[in-house]
Specification:
Layout lengths: L2 H28 L7 H22 L4 H28 L10 E2 L7 H7 L3 E2 L6 E2 L2 E2 H23 L5
Antiparallel strand pairs: 1-2, 3-4
Helix pairs in contact: 1-2, 1-3, 1-5, 2-3, 3-5
Length: 162
């Protein structure tokens, strides 16, 4: 892979990873009814920032500013992964969460009825898992791997040919 191809792959990956994870989170919420707890929301915010930064980087592609924005986006993806690791540890009972972490699903209409009928979403209970890994655990695995891959690709892309 040439240095230019590595940089191009980094730009693409830093957009695709958070977009895919946010898409999966939204599908799980709106299609499968897995409402997010407070820590799930905390994981989403860095992904949203990463998507915005990655889109700005694409506009500035090929410049130092574009590369800097890709690095910032990769840091945001890494931050989401770190929050996911903490959240997964709370779900697995490895450590205590830092909030009471109960959230309602945000229904519209009569506010009192919405509060009374809304499900309680707890951060210490994984609503879904595959192979013993929760959604927060998958966010950790995919986010950290994606961010490290972006950094590696950018490192290869900045090498000067011999």
């Amino acid at each position: 892979m040439t240095p230019q191809q590595s940089r191009s792959a980094a730009y693409t990956l830093v957009l695709l990873v958070p977009a895919a994870l946010m898409g999966g989170a939204l599908i799980s919420q709106y299609v499968f009814g897995l409402y997010p707890c407070q820590m799930c929301w905390w994981q989403r915010y860095p992904h949203i920032a990463a998507i915005v930064l990655a889109l700005l980087a694409l506009v500035m592609r090929g410049s130092r500013l574009g590369d800097a924005l890709v690095r910032l986006a990769a840091l945001a993806v890494l931050a989401s992964g770190a929050i996911g690791a903490f959240h997964a540890g709370v779900e697995y009972g490895w450590w205590q969460g830092i909030t009471t972490c109960a959230r309602t699903s945000g229904a519209s209409g009569d506010p009192l009825a919405a509060i009374m009928n809304a499900p309680i979403i707890r951060c210490d209970v994984a609503p879904w898992s595959l192979f013993g890994i929760s959604l927060a655990g998958y966010n950790f695995l995919i986010s950290v791997a994606g961010a490290l891959a972006v950094f590696a690709l950018l490192g290869r892309g900045n090498r000067r040919p011999a």
